[in-house]
Automatic annotation (TrEMBL):
Protein name: Alpha/beta fold hydrolase
GO MF annotations, alphabetized: hydrolase activity
Region called Disordered, residue ranges: 1-22
Domain AB hydrolase-1: 52-296
Ranges annotated as spanning the membrane: none
Domain of life according to the entry: Bacteria
Any Pfam family the entry gives: Abhydrolase_1
Keyword tags: Hydrolase
Residue stretches of biased makeup (Pro residues): 1-11
Length: 316
């Protein structure tokens, strides 16, 4: 006698759509939280909308929630998949696998499980690292790639250890996050100090208090979440070696590279031109490191224009 198929439970609690604060009106009518079993781990994704598939990958130390202001409009034209990658939010937090090659494979497996062979991807910060890896390692899967506000270790030039004060203020967390365990000991119980400072120092327009609190509370609620938040950086030796090999295989798909004028600016497109042949660069004025939350209207307009050929041609 065969047993009936089992289905993952519905995500609930902190990090799910049902518990996320201050979502746009009607958000839960379009979007739902779901667990997706990739065969190796269980990922949490928020899905909704109609049209070709669009994968949204947020950066450190955020979750799918970073895209909330863009998602309702994007869902008018796309099947939106806003994912919590390995180690983030409600997704599994295994001890390893935080190099971008593994993270990219996770996302390919996620989209396979959701029935999406081809898709477009928007990645911010660490999501930009992963988006580059996915485009390079799985070129048959992506139609278009939009990235925002990151340098790519192993592709971008490494800054000097004793650089300017401005560079140090922007980048010191790289060295801190790579430590083996002392960073967890220092941050545990003081998450609001560390992560709150990161958000405050990198934004030109302050993120809403409720959003910062949501991100901090998510990290503070579980020691594994705090540990996993550092694992992306602890895996940098592997990611750098992978990227040094990837840069020998140039990307041919269209790439949109977005920088905030008050943070990385044009350097985002300069980074992507080291790896890709077809790069459009855009610098958003009065914007820092978090364009999806600081300048959602401008970012939505840019993504809408960039993704239009994919939207219109996906069914051809």
């Amino acid at each position: 006698m065969s047993l009936p198929p089992t289905h993952p439970p519905t995500p609930e609690g902190r990090g799910s759509v049902s518990q996320a604060p201050n979502l746009p009106a009607g958000f839960a009518d379009t979007f739902t939280s779901r667990y997706v079993d990739t065969g190796e781990l269980r990922l949490h994704a928020v899905t909704g909308g109609e049209g070709p598939a669009l994968l949204l990958v947020a950066g450190w130390p955020q979750t799918w929630y970073a895209w909330r202001l863009l998602m309702p409009a994007l869902a008018l034209n796309f099947q939106v998949v806003a994912v919590d990658p390995r180690g983030v939010g409600l997704s599994d937090k295994p001890p390893g696998g935080y190099d971008t090659g593994t993270l990219a494979r996770d996302l390919v497996a996620l989209m396979d499980a959701l029935g999406h062979r081809r898709f477009a991807l928007v990645g911010h910060d660490v999501g930009m690292w992963t988006g580059y890896a996915l485009a390079a390692d799985h070129p048959d899967r992506l139609d278009r790639l939009a990235v925002a506000e990151a340098a790519i270790p192993g592709l971008s030039a490494s800054p000097p250890l004793l650089g300017s004060r401005e560079a140090n203020d922007r980048l010191w967390h790289f060295a801190f996050n790579r430590l083996a365990d002392v960073n967890e000991q220092l941050v545990s119980g003081r998450e609001h100090v560390y992560f709150g400072s990161q958000f405050a120092s990198k934004s030109a327009k302050a993120l809403p208090d409720y959003a910062v609190q949501h991100y901090v509370d998510t990290l503070a609620a579980d020691p594994e979440a705090l540990r996993a938040s550092f694992e992306f950086y602890r895996a940098l030796d592997t990611t750098v070696a992978q990227n040094q090999e990837r840069r020998t295989r140039r990307l041919t798909l269209p790439v949109l590279a977005i920088g905030g004028a008050e943070n990385l600016g044009a350097s985002v497109s300069e980074t992507m031109k080291l790896a890709a042949d077809d790069v459009q660069g855009l610098v958003l004025p009065d914007c820092g490191h978090y364009p999806a939350e600081e300048a959602p209207k401008a970012m939505l307009a840019a993504l809408t224009a960039f993704l239009a050929p994919y939207r219109d041609g996906a069914g051809a």
